[in-house]
Amino acid sequence: MTHQPLLQVKDLHVFYDQIEALRGVSLSVDERAIVTLIGANGAGKSTLLRSISGILRARSGSIKFAGASIEQAPAHLIARTGLAHVPEGRRLFAKLTVDENLRMGAFRRNDRRAIEDDRERLMDMFPRLRERTAQISGTLSGGEQQMVAMARALMSRPRMLLLDEPSMGLSPLMVDFVFDTITKINGEGITILLVEQNASLALQIATSAYVIESGSISLQGSGVSLLHDERVREAYLG
Amino acid sequence: MMTATNVLPERRARWRISFSAATSWVLRISIALILVAGVVGSILKDRYSADQWFDLVAFGITIGSVYALIALGYTMVYGVLRLINFAHGDIMMAGSFAGFFIAASMERSGFLDQHPVLAFAAMLAVAMLVSAGIAVLTERFAYRPFRHVRGLAPLICAIGVSFFLQQSFRGFFGAGLRSYPDPVWLRAPVSLFEFNVPAVQVLVVASAIVVMLVLYLIVHKTKMGTAMRAVSEDVETATLMGIDVNRVVTFTFALGGAVGGVAGVFYGLVFKQVYFFMGFTPGIKAFGAAVLGGIGNVPGAMIGGIFLGICESLAPALLLDGLGIPAPYQMRDLIAFTLLIAVLIFRPYGIFGERLAGKRG
Which of B72, B271, B331, B348 counts the highest number of beta carbons within 10 A? Predict the structure, then answer.
């Protein structure tokens, strides 16, 4: 039996007008893995995630998710295949309540009772949201907003979660909570592709990792091996 | 030396700000003075009876609730697409025509007089269907190609659609005025707080309130309505939730169109006539009402519309008469547009402080 990764990106080229943001990126994510993507600002991390979830259209290359080619599919249909993207900067619907944000996460679902169960489960995972369900989400703290963003994505019952800089701008305590939650979510069987500035924490929880530099993958390996790699230590962990 | 050169431009800038603030305050104070002079003048003249004042207020609320219904279409479409759908007044006109044709045929068969409730419901239903249909079609064929175009092109396209609809209706149904059926049950006076009001006004206001309540519930309590608000805030993130933005946009146009169709019937019933150009003025006024309430804001459009209606109904008697302006009632539209310009100058974000643009990441 040949080994089939859940997400497979092959030779992806993405342009912003004339500028080539991704120059032939290939990457694969196994089912139930935590894969970390590290790199400097502007290296193309967010561009890669946005191309996978269909917000950006690749000029060439292929993206396969759960066996299906998705590089041409519109973003809202990709979201329905079980790929949930928590965008950079959380991007909550700031004028909607926490509860409405969560319900938007479950937009494509119609199983009302299961939605209620999931909501209940997520309130256990993020207890601080429980007393804030009716609050306008724009008024939450950064950490709480990140919780809502992750909970919203989980409301779609995804197979895979794309997380773009989930620890950005959070207090150290909250960063720890976010990383604990990521491992917990992964423990429930959800595959994770994580983009992080906080390279050391991200590599510690990663099963495998990629380093992206000016639009192409420069290094790859297991999380631990990259954590001890000279070049990585110098550029991203120093 | 360095400090001296630095101080000079800073001072000049400060002086310039205070100058523009000063002109703005002069303008504000003169507007306030005119308002006070007019009101005091009108009260001193004491030309109108309590009955007449009540009539003016009642008419203002009536026409205001029609503006409110039209304004909702502007505000919802703007909220979702950041597009000012200048054809919306004509979509309302289409609804008015549809209601007219149904009512006229029911009048001929006698149904209109025998079954007022059913007849009224039929007029509204057909008008809603026609207006919603036209709104959805204009979005699909005229606006969608401009979805990602920046600048003036979408706005010019909207103006083009407006002319297209006007001229189509003129071509199909002629340029003349047609008088709306006016059955007895609409003319009968209803007594309200010891005053008499024509039944049509009571009917229009009551139905408009029901329509607005239902709309509010749709926008705030249903999944599709919540999706509308989500798309309005952040299209990209909405698609990440699996929301089909095209469907939400179609839904928005259908909803706004249907409410516009209701407004068209009401407008026809109040002014008792239909013609191809009838959507233009109330359309622009309702747009003003939407801006007044903070464009993109649903309750704001409702309140803005009613406020505008009351202002333009009361202002001739309360303000212009007192200033000694002859034939003040011919200046109703002027009042509405002056109010629109004043809002754009002094409160471009509307009474509810909604930003006009630029919140998308």
Answer: B72
